[in-house]
Amino acid sequence: MKHEQLAKDILSGVGGKQNINSVVHCATRLRFKLKNDNNAKTDELKNLPGVITVMQSGGQYQVVVGNEVSDVYKALLQVGNMNADEPVSSDDSEYSGKKESLLGQFIDLISGVFTPILGLLAATGMIKGFLSMFTSLEWLDPASGTYQLLNAAGDCLFYFFPIFLGYTAMKKFGGSPFLGMAIGASLVYPTLSGLSGGEPLYTLFAGTLFESPIHITFLGIPVILMSYSSSVIPIIIAAYFGAKVEAFFKKIIPSVVRTFLTPFFTILIVVPVTFLLIGPIATWASQLIGAGVSGIYDLSPLVTGIVVGGLWQVLVIFGLHWGIVPIMLLNLSTLKADPILAMMFAASFAQIGAVLGVMLKTKNTKLKSLGVPAFVSGIFGVTEPAIYGLTLPLKKPFIMSCIASATAGGIIGFAGSKMFVFASGIFGVPALISPTEGINYEFWMAMIATIIAFVLGFVLVYFVGFKDPANPEAAKQAPEPVKEEKAALEPNPNNRYEIASPMTGEVVPLQEINDATFAGEHMGKGIAIRPTSGRVVSPINGVVQTIYRTKHAIGLVDDQGVEILIHIGQDTVQLKGQHFTAHVKDGDRVSVGDLIVEFDLQAIIEAGYETVTPIIVTNTADYLDVVATTSREVQEKDKLVTVIG
Q: Which of 130, 345, 372, 529 is the most buried (most CB within 10 A)?
């Protein structure tokens, strides 16, 4: 239900289904292709609970939701009645008219083709990486059946890459995905691959870079047989051509026989053209690109490593790192190793080093709580939560992480380290082990560089510092607390802080409410009240930290630093502020008994929502204990919770 509501809000925020041409997702983002970006409500989307941020880059409208993106994507398809295998809409009548740049078109194409298989690509790469490690350490014999079976599991995707890319590329170009698979399967058909081992009939382009022995012909036309296993560019171009051919035949073939005649004629044309023309030219182009990248790298591996390492996280922010993915895969398919993957490997560890520095340095409990999931995600190579949630908003930590990453990238480039399979995060460690040389100098230098990235990111952030939202300077600028002559509750000499009741009603233990987050005390200890009136008053003398835009939740901090969350009802965020009236705003000073929020209790009940209201001490970890009242009913300003310091 949580994902369903978020999906509905996102769908509304991007302008509805009618404004969507297509949508895919990567590790942390929903990537929309909108008809008109101006119809999207960017500010509202950024404020949605569950949305980290919104980016517009590479011709895409990107909604960053973090690690639960796949669940949100499924919910989005369901609530929007959309099909993952088809474009959402082909009607461009409402298109904004803004011409997309060539870079934007390229990024959109690459992300659309590679995003769906990114998880599988990383998973199979991890298997290959661990196999390299196990054989290097002599834990596994390459001749054993165990190795052979695991090697097949790890190699299956990359060996049959054209089949998988045929599906995703054909889908991206608006054709039938299974036709793309058929074209890809023909490229890796084993019998054709085996024909290139015999005596050639003759040789084309003899004495040139493109010298090609001819083993078979098609209707008398020479066929240049090449190994398309693990190839990238040939199938993408073939899928584009295939989508155009299929669209042509769909127009001219009667609907009664279109189902089988359209794929019949498409395959009959596209497969021979791919072998005769597209495949050889695309393969030669791939080899030239690979040689060009290697040439640039060879000019100065040190400088290349500094640039790639330092800018990688910047590219991630705008989603432009997708433009480099094909080059990585080309290197893996043609050179069997890639230096770019190695040079950016330490970037995620520099990022989590910076996150650790923020967590230990900040006094802001919200930043501390954001740091834990961001740190864990970063360990596995997913750095968007760390970037958007912590380091980028604080500015200096992001810069420090880039400096640390650039330093590590330079070391890795200088050492000549490479990755031999596609992997990221901690699972990229085995991917740095050479299948032929095992654990060597390049591997150890990459490990040293990664440790340096983590330590340097942490040290720079911790000692250079940043503007902490809760630092002493900010506290000095805050208004002096007003001493209330008739304060209802004051801390006693025994270091105990009393929290008053913010409403009148029946006391309910947290463990009995129907919300796992509150019931499990994941937000902190406290108590709940089932209200009998529609008033919320201040339970403390202090400051309003946050009034949520939906007015259903209030964050307060008292003069002694106790932080309180009052969450009116369950799932009432879905009311989007209806039936709630706020009488204070962020930063307002309040005293015990001051009216904060009014709500229409009966209307909320009639709308089908539970009204039981948790009152939580969110910084419970800063105290010895939080003890709730034993009374069964409370009135406004009655003693409700005792915080033991």
A: 345
